[in-house]
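Task: sequence design from structure.
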């Protein structure tokens, strides 16, 4: 019986990135604009995709990579279906944000800055979201939750599919 080769990494179709970059280049748009659109298409910026973007935009790979790592809005890793962000600014910190973050890390079994293997959750922290009085603040899929504690986390996570 002949064995089938197993791909350890899913192959990424870079054709969309090539089309987006070529399109923007023809219009004279910036590399940042290309990266924004490419990330919107793929959900993140895989290395193979960055290579294609650099090639199409006729810039060194280091320039595309540098931009992708400079802006917090870009991600080089796949993001989870649910994006969870804990504010660790001073006001939230004194109101117990550390406990909130530690509980989320335990419950989701990932560290801050990571995405779960099943691509269900991504966990991040930020410094001050401008809603200090209602801290600790946790933003889940763009929705802000205030005065978060253990019980609230259980409820929030329980409502995610
Ligand atoms: S410190 Fe968390 S919202 Fe300001």
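Answer:
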């Amino acid at each position: 019986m002949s064995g089938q080769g197993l791909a350890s990494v899913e192959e990424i179709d870079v054709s969309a990135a090539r089309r987006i970059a070529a399109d923007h280049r023809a219009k004279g748009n910036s590399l940042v604009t290309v990266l924004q659109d490419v990330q919107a298409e793929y959900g993140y910026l895989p290395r193979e995709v960055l290579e294609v973007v650099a090639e199409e935009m006729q810039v060194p790979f280091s320039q595309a990579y540098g931009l992708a790592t400079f802006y917090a809005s870009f991600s080089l890793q796949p993001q989870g279906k649910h994006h969870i962000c804990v504010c660790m600014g001073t006001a939230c910190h004194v109101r117990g944000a550390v406990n909130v973050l530690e509980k989320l890390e335990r419950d989701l079994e990932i560290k801050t800055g990571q995405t779960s293997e099943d691509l269900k959750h991504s966990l991040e922290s930020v410094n001050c979201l401008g809603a200090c009085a209602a801290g600790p603040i946790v933003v889940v899929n763009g929705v802000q939750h205030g005065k978060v504690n253990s019980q609230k986390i259980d409820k929030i996570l329980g409502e995610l599919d």
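Residues 87, 89-92, 128-132, 135, 137 surround FE2/S2 (inorganic) cluster (CB under 6 Å).
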